[in-house]
Predict the 3D structure of the following.
Amino acid sequence: MSGTRGNQCDHGPGGSMSQISYDQWLARRCGLPEGFSQAQLDAWQLAALRQRALYAFAHSRFYRELYAGIDLPRAAPGELPLISGEDIARAGTAMACLSQTSIQRIVTMETSGSTGLPKRIYFSAADLELTVDFFAQGMTYMVSPGDKVLICMPGHNPDGLNDLLSRGLRRINVEPCYYGLVSDLADAATTIRAYRPDCIVAIPGQMLALAESAPDLRPPRLLLSADNVPDELRRRIEDLWHTEVFAHWGMRETGLGGAVECGEHQGYHIRHADLLLEIVDPLSGRALPDGQRGELVISTFNREAMPLLRYRTGDIAHLIAAPCGCGSGLKRLGPVQGHKLMEVIR
Ligand SMILES: [Zn+2]
């Protein structure tokens, strides 16, 4: 996978996107006034969830059966049944809301469930664009126009992680360069010395190994994703490299992008315009109050090919209601622990 890939770096013209704050971006995406409150966002998200449930009911056999008898225009989130990876595997195309000809990308994941069936998640071109848009905005926390980003992640196929992230970066006039997973520390170090990225996007354990073996590299900023980012690991990398470590949470079910830290590092700023995140009791399925750890449940508001509504991720997390040091008063996601994080690949 590894190799000196400077020749894959993109020097093409960037897009144009004025620099706005994350919450201004959310305001635009949700059609809410600037400076909107969490209460306004809650109301917007409830309406968006109901609308997407109606859309799913109208276009998908799976959801039509699941929501039979539910008053969808007035349903509270808790009235919509939770769904699992097993449901996705069993439903197959019955969960899709678009015809196969409108599907741009199919992501296949093995499940550990009793059926042994893989689960497949369908994305339209518009669904993928939502992720590109989030990447473009989220990356502005750590890069500026003219910067260079080295991507040390798997997923080099069309519409895969590297492709979507690179498209987002070009949109904010940042140059992406794909390296891939680090399998040869010396080779990765040589590439970084030659390319001098302003930010590296990588997997936590791989960057720790690289920092231990080449403490002189000192990239200014690091974005860690696809796995837990323990505090100890973060501190060790920051000490070795004198770098600022950011963390991102996402999974293939969220369309890869999900939530990202700002420079205050007080939790992950959520992709609120596209995702409803809930925390439920893993046993009873009942919603838990902010701050309490439980199972993370996601709903996608805008996905047209296959909306996931109240999908149990199997990951454990909590929501943070206290305002962030950056000034945002919106809820954020706390550290996520889960076995599915490494699925953010390919
Ligand atoms: Zn913040």
About this structure: Residues 1-7, 11-16, 340-346 have pLDDT under 50 and may be disordered. The radius of gyration is 20 Å. The longest strand covers residues 294-300. The first helix runs from residue 22 to 30.
